Amino acid sequence: MKKILTTVLISIFTSLAVFGADYSVKAVTGKVQYEASAGNWKNVSVGQILSDSTLINTSLNSSLVITGSAGDVTIKAMQKGSVKDLSSAPAKVGGLKKTLNRNSIAGNASAASKGTATASSRASEAKADFDWEE
Question: Is the pTM of this model over 0.85?
Fold first, then answer.
């Protein structure tokens, strides 16, 4: 009976190691925590290995850079969820930033840039859209 139980436990741990992706913490900025046990949150440290089911919580003005099989992924401030969900989520404002090649971006930046929109320029555009009676 002990042999069967031992064999089952070894096979479960082996399957978790094979199928679960691990991520290495490359950089931590601000307060980033992981859930060590139910309701017990601990700080994430550089070099720590996180499984894809680990729950992560990034606070205000904080970020986490993790390295996995797909490359570096930056999880930005005010995010909470599993490492798997946060690293595979589509990029959104304030959420996730996947590392890109700077050379391919730099060539297109000058052509697409039209300047910074300010409150004054937005108000001028809005005024032009309406007929004002003064």
Answer: no
